[in-house]
C-alpha cells in the first residue's frame, strides 16, 4: 500500500494511522485527505474521520461535550470582558438605561460616562439612537445592523486572539445537498 492509498476498513485505518504517527516527521494520513462538506463526504472520508474520532458519541454524550466546551468558552469570554473597563462601563450604562448620545452642560455626568466607555462609546451611542428610533416607530434594519456591528467591533478590536472584521454586506448561502446513496 503506497502512502496515497486510503484504506477501506477501520482496522486498516487504525494500522496506517499508527504507522504514520510512529514515523518521525510524517503527518497522519487523515491530514492528506481533501475534505468535503458532510453532504458530499465520500465513504473514504468518513473512514478518515472515524480514525480521528473512533468512538461515535450518542446524542446526549455529544450534547454534554458541546455544553462543557461552550461553558468553558463562555467563561473565558466573560473573564476577558471583565478585564476591560470600557466594557464594564458599557454594561453599567445599559443597566442604568443611560444614554451617551448627547452631551449637555446641564448633565456633565454624560460626558464622564462617554469618556469611561472608551472604545464602546460608539456602540452605546448608536444603541441609544436605535432605542429612540424604536420608540418613535422609525427604526429600520440598517440602524439595527449598524448598532450591532459597532458593538461587535468594540468588543473584538481589543481581543488579542480575534482577527476578524464585521460587515453589513449580504452574502448568499447555498447548499448542494444530495440524497444519500442506498
Sheet with the most strands? none
The average pLDDT score comes to: 75
How many DSSP H or I helices?
A: 7
Q: Report the portion of residues in β strands.
A: under 5%
Q: Judging from the principal axes of the Cα atoms, what is the shape?
A: elongated
State the low-pLDDT regions, or none.
26-30
Q: Cα-atom Rg, whole angstroms? A: 26 Å
Helix content: 40-55%
Furnish the topology, listing elements before pairings.
Blueprint: H1 10-22, H2 43-52, H3 59-82, H4 85-95, H5 109-117, H6 121-136, H7 141-156
What keywords describe this structure?
182 residues, 54% helix
Plain-language structure description:
By secondary structure, this protein is mainly alpha-helical. Among the domains are: 10-52, no CATH class; 82-156, no CATH class. The chain has seven helices and no strands. The model is unreliable at 26-30 (pLDDT under 50).
Question: What is the gist of this entry?
Answer:
The protein is mainly alpha-helical and 182 residues long. The chain contains seven helices and no strands.
